[in-house]
Automatic annotation (TrEMBL), chains A, B:
The keyword Transferase applies. PROSITE patterns: GST_NTER (PS50404). This is Glutathione S-transferase family protein. Residues 8-84 form the GST N-terminal domain. SUPFAM superfamilies: GST C-terminal domain-like, Thioredoxin-like. InterPro entries: Glutathione-S-Trfase_C_sf, Glutathione_S-Trfase_N, GST_UstS-like_C, Thioredoxin-like_sf. GO terms for molecular function: transferase activity. Gene3D superfamilies: 1.20.1050.10, Glutaredoxin. It comes from the Bacteria.
Amino acid sequence: MTRVLYELAAADPDRRFSPFCWRIRLALEHKGLSFEGRPWRFTDTAALAFSGSDKVPVLVEDGRAIADSSVIAGHLEAAHPDRPSLFGGPAGAALTRFHVAWTDQVLHPALVPLLLLDIHRHLDEADQAYFRRSREARFGKALADVCPDPEAQLAVLRRTLSPVRAVLRSQAFLGGEAPLYADHAVMGAFLWARGVSALALLEPDDPVEAWRLRMIERLGEGSRALAFG
Amino acid sequence: MTRVLYELAAADPDRRFSPFCWRIRLALEHKGLSFEGRPWRFTDTAALAFSGSDKVPVLVEDGRAIADSSVIAGHLEAAHPDRPSLFGGPAGAALTRFHVAWTDQVLHPALVPLLLLDIHRHLDEADQAYFRRSREARFGKALADVCPDPEAQLAVLRRTLSPVRAVLRSQAFLGGEAPLYADHAVMGAFLWARGVSALALLEPDDPVEAWRLRMIERLGEGSRALAFG
């Protein structure tokens, strides 16, 4: 079975920085499924046209293209039931939607102001123009003005993590004794940040930092090379 | 098997308003376990002394006292495995900790400023004094000054619910097709509010409001009488 994951990349093709692509990369590793991670850039819409999607992640499994991280995760769980579960059963799958929604709607917005300029700096020229235009329209201000006080924003981010922190005080992973897709969704945000920024997002004694390091220890070889190569 | 649930009550013993007690009441109904809900007041510490806890909920099952809502929920699941599951399995139990932590640390703080004066108004005299003293110490200001702009706070509350809203756009309950303990944790907040305030917390077309009404439809008779009697 051939498997290709299209992943958002910077000018350097090994710099992968989409949180949504990272969660699928982690899900594929969780299931022990081999794949080729293929770099893709914002403005490379022609390369994705075959899939019907204009965004990554797109997973192509035996010629079938699947877009949208949540759809891909559901597909992986259904298509590979003999492999370690991403959700721990139907109730777990339903409950995980909250972790994913919280990551997308609360965690990412707290993190993105800290990363915008770094992301822009790492893109190739065509993507830089696209990124500046689309993000300045989204935030209604110049990129450089989105985060006037990074220290205050860092404090917001750390406060935002409080429910994750509370859970990780009583168990090793959001999924319990081992990671589940809920962990991958949140970890995607940290690997996104890691891909473009050297900023220490967490205090060394934060239980979330201890969890982040446990998640890094479990990265597959390919992911480790991309994140720390 | 006799079962007594000690629940926080206002001057009117049928006005029950602790979100933590409500989630256990919903959990007991979920499991189809009969119980007597016994009103308890903040300053009634003598009545709880037997349990070793100075707070409700306390569940007494066949003479054994169990305190703390999460501990009680875990006990109910372990002691009554033949009844409908609160978590849908071990992964679900681990994942539910995030819903509970988010409710305690994010949802309740967004809601409590809107309720403080109403709670105070409904308490008996001894509890009023305790409540004012302890809450003014916690907020560092007079009760009347905690929420200078209720409309703005209501907007905060509705924004805070965005990840719940996102989940409920794609499924009927946080637990999927039927409620799980994650639903009871969040619903506890709404029944707390309902117990003391007539404020419409949600817009009629909000998916969270549709879910709240579905949860109300499923209340047992005793709970319905307390919440709407």
